[in-house]
Amino acid sequence: QVQLVESGGGLVQAGGSLRLSCTASGRTISSYAMAWFRQAPGKEREFQAAISSGGRTYYTDSAKGRFTISRDNAKNTVYLQMNSLKPEDTAVYYCAAKAGTFYYTSDFRSWGQGTQVTVSS
Fold it and tell me: Which secondary-structure segment (H or E) carries 48?
């Protein structure tokens, strides 16, 4: 089973940028679809972005144009570059993995522990 560890969260001012990293162990992720979700206090976990094993990317509407998901299979790592951050982006960000192809965001079953992102106004 793949283990995922997120890093790169922190406190940033509105308009700033952060790059989150998700490093996997236990499996090579080259054949995995990978994704980022987030959960704000009192809200459900919501999908942000995904990348297929072939490199195709998918974004939720709020992330399009601001967030970029990428992967480095040699480093067994997935990234989320977040630009133009807003206070409403404040949440715990989770990395997730799905062996093979995903069809629905609910297909992702392997999760990291999360990293806190706080955007101040």
Answer: strand 46-51
